[in-house]
Design a protein that fits this description.
Layout: H1 7-10, H2 18-24, H3 27-39, H4 45-61, E1 64-70, E2 82-84, H5 101-105, E3 106-107, E4 127-131, E5 138-142, E6 145-156, H6 165-185, E7 194-208, H7 209-212, H8 216-221, H9 246-261, E8 266-271, E9 277-282, E10 285-286, H10 287-307, E11 310-313, E12 327-335, H11 352-367, H12 369-375, E13 397-398, H13 400-413, E14 424-425, E15 435-436, E16 448-450, E17 455-457, H14 467-488, H15 494-509, H16 521-530, H17 538-541, H18 548-556, H19 562-616, H20 622-654, H21 659-684, H22 697-702
Parallel strand pairs: 1-6, 13-16
Antiparallel strand pairs: 1-2, 3-4, 4-6, 5-6, 7-9, 7-10, 7-11, 7-12, 8-9, 12-17, 14-15, 16-17
Helix pairs in contact: 6-14, 9-10, 11-14, 11-15, 12-14, 19-20, 19-21, 20-21
The protein binds adenosine-5'-diphosphate and magnesium ion.
């Protein structure tokens, strides 16, 4: 890539964005498409043909040979099938390049191999991808050449959502309708649309590709299944925000340039807490686009790592003993005319609309804490949530001093009359200018924190799609907006009614507010006293999807039907069981074929050396015999643990898929994996480094 980059010039150059559409499409077609995007009306086939033709011409100029419907099935990753633009050869042996409106709007991948949770039997494998014109198409350049990627939704023949995008779009419609109602109550007649704005901060690890390839655990599962702690971990906090090493900096530069060209507004980058851990955050965008962009970010991070001799690990917990990775989902509500409904202003106590919005969100989060928790449930995330590095598995809301004070006033006196001010920051150094402080400090331990004019949901796993959490957020808030509007729209005295409602919500849902240290043991006890759910694992979180409450919520707002929810439950249990099964099998493979043989070699060499030393001179061989005894004991323990694990996964494999099997994996298989890891990690500290068949934690984390 070139040395000098003019970001403004390259930004969005590979995107079929508004500028391109305006330039290329006939005015009438452009207007019609814009109306579809804004108001969700259907496109007529003739218009679609014109758009498809222009999109193809543009893509070919950008070097595209293929197009693909890019979609998000329930595998957690995106899927695509490429078709070239060529038509059947003509008589003269040449081909034409074509792309019709039909091909743009609808695709029909053989859907039988994607998870459907029983929604679609394999013999009825029809599934459709449908163009989502609200997220712009783009040309991706990689080893395959140029590919026109068309963001699409993925549904079954009978219209059930088989993906993440369809319910997300449905939830965006729901919140739009209810938020507009709420705005109207306060006299807003100008805003036409409300969209959730989302900014996802993405954490990731980078390791050397050569070393990665020597670790079968990383190859098969994305995380290390063995590994003794190196002498140094993250205790010095010297990596966090530290100087970015040159190899990594050059990688980040390529990532940024690629993302900018794809219209992803990569903004912030820094070293994270754990060694070899980093973060990238784009500027927030409309929820739907933010979800797509986050997928592009994850794919770009992975792809470009390979070009730099690196591997990018997106797993939530690649290494034991140092922090894992998450994804902070920043969320707010923005109107088409630029109003952020979560902006408190300087005097929040006077901002009645804001207080109502805030209290509705508190209510939504309190009532549906289980659903929010579920939306962040992921096999890898089980290693983080509740450990001392990520928010606890208990949902609570951090409001900060200023808003908590307003809330207190509301509850105790019935009205809020003042707002705490931020004041000036005093450094005690004359040459440093006085800067004004925020009215509220930060709280890094809260899973759901108010941060100025947005909420930051911090539970999401680094590898997971952010679609799930945003579907839940949009829908639960739509519900509480609806309930508030239902009450207030008919009120005779609006001012009194809204005042009473705010007070009622604040009092009823104050229990979800917690400004203290979420990592402290006392909080777990306090939360239990308050009756807040503490859902420790993914397996325990899944049932939240199909409670009566959830079926009603998602049904009322037409986000998920009951069968769609049931399908998701099934898919989640299966995903959990399969992931643990792969990890267990990988451990058996690595321990049986690499580590135990290495230890046998080591002990054999040690025994030979003891004999040799004894024969040469009857010297004291107590060190060698001590090591031999210790390693032989650990070797026996490893083999026993391996056999036990083998028996367990056989038993698990024979069980019917579902809740019970998933619970067995968690309760029996996972502890058996830990039991196998323990003696082997101890052995790693004894056996000669030269004889250990894979790179250590130290090699992976500190020699990137
Ligand atoms: P932090 O200090 O929390 O690490 P970052 O700058 O890394 O903050 O990320 C903050 C994220 O929140 C960015 O993606 C940013 O664009 C996003 N964000 C800022 N304001 C809003 C908003 N009103 N709504 C949604 N997201 C927002
Ligand atoms: Mg950040």
């Amino acid at each position: 890539m070139s040395e000098f980059t003019n970001v403004a010039e390259i930004f969005g150059e590979d995107v079929f964005n508004d500028t391109v559409m305006m330039e290329r499409l006939p005015k009438k077609v452009y207007k019609e498409l814009k109306r579809t995007i804004a108001e969700g009306e259907e496109l007529d086939p003739a218009t679609a043909d014109v758009i498809a033709h222009e999109m193809k011409e543009w893509a070919i100029e950008k070097g595209a040979t293929h197009y693909t419907h890019w979609f998000q099935p329930l595998t957690g990753v995106t899927a695509e099938k490429h078709d070239s633009f060529i038509t059947a050869p003509m008589e003269n042996g040449k081909v034409l390049m074509s792309f019709s409106g039909k091909e743009l709007i609808k695709g029909e991948p053989d859907a039988s191999s994607f998870p459907s949770g029983g929604l679609r039997a394999t013999f009825e494998a029809r599934g459709y991808t449908v163009w989502d014109c609200t997220s712009p198409a783009f040309v991706r350049h990689d080893a395959a050449g140029g590919t026109l990627c068309i963001p699409t939704a993925f549904c079954s023949y009978t219209g059930e959502a088989l993906d993440q995008k369809t319910p997300l779009l449905r939830s965006m419609q729901a919140i739009n309708i209810q938020a507009l109602r709420l705005l109207k109550l306060f006299g807003n007649e100008t805003s036409k649309k409300v969209t959730p704005s989302v900014g996802a901060e993405q954490e990731y690890f980078l390791v050397d590709a050569g070393k990665f390839l020597q670790r079968k655990d990383l190859i098969f599962t994305g995380r290390t299944l063995f590994g003794a702690m190196p002498p140094k971990g993250q205790e010095l906090d010297d990596h966090y925000f530290g100087t970015i090493r040159q190899r990594i900096a050059s990688y980040m530069k390529d990532v940024n340039i690629t993302l900018w060209k794809l219209g992803v507004s990569a903004k912030t980058q820094h070293n994270e807490v754990a060694p070899a851990q980093h973060e990238l955050a784009p500027i927030y965008a409309e929820a739907n686009i933010a979800v797509d962009h986050n997928h592009i970010v994850m794919q770009t991070l992975k792809r470009l790592a390979c070009e730099h001799g690196l591997k990018c690990l997106l797993h939530e917990k690649p290494f034991d003993g140092v922090n894992g990775s998450g994804k902070h989902n920043n969320w707010s509500l923005t109107t088409d005319d630029g109003i952020n409904m979560l902006e408190p202003g300087k005097t929040p106590h006077e901002n009645i609309q804001f207080l109502l919005v805030l209290c509705c969100i508190l209510k939504a989060v309190d009532v549906h804490a289980d659903l929010l928790r579920e939306s962040a449930a992921d096999v890898g995330n089980d290693h983080r949530l509740g450990a001392n590095e990520a928010p606890p598995a208990i949902i609570s809301v951090f409001l900060g001093e200023q808003l908590e004070d307003v809330l207190e006033q509301l509850i105790s006196t019935g009205s809020a009359t003042s707002s705490l001010k931020g004041g000036k920051l005093k450094t005690g150094v004359g040459t440093l200018s006085d800067v004004s402080k925020d009215a509220t400090d930060r709280n890094r331990t809260s899973p759901f924190a108010f941060t100025g004019n947005k909420f930051e949901f911090r539970m999401v796993g680094s590898r997971d799609s952010i679609a799930g959490p945003n579907i839940v957020l949009n829908t639960i808030v739509a519900e509480s907006f609806k309930e508030a509007c239902d009450k207030l729209e008919g009120a005779e005295d609006f001012d009194t009614a809204v005042h009473d409602l705010i007070k009622e919500y604040a009092a009823d849902h104050q229990k979800i507010v917690f400004n203290g240290n979420g990592y402290a043991e006392e909080w777990v006890e306090e939360a239990a006293r308050r009756g807040l759910p503490n859902i420790a694992s993914m397996v325990d979180a899944i049932p939240a999807l199909t409670t009566e409450k959830s079926i009603k919520l998602f049904g009322d707002f037409k986000v998920f039907t009951k069968p769609e929810l049931e399908a998701r439950v099934e898919i989640q249990y299966e995903a959990y069981a399969k992931a643990i099964n792969i990890e267990a099998k990988a451990m058996i493979d690595i321990a049986g074929k690499q580590l135990i043989p290495a230890v046998i070699k080591y002990t054999t060499a040690l025994a030979e050396s003891i004999n040799a030393v004894k024969a040469a001179c009857p010297a004291n061989v107590s060190v060698q015999t001590g090591l031999l005894e210790k390693s032989s004991d650990l070797l026996a323990a490893s083999q026993n643990a391996l056999d036990a694990l083998k028996a367990m996964i056989e038993k698990a494999g024979a069980m019917a898929e579902g809740a019970e099997q998933a619970a067995y994996y968690r309760d029996a298989v996972v502890p058996a994996m830990t039991a196998l890891r323990a003696p082997i990690d101890e052995l790693e500290m004894i056996v000669d480094k030269d004889m250990w068949p894979m790179p250590s934690y130290g090699d992976l984390l500190f020699e990137v």
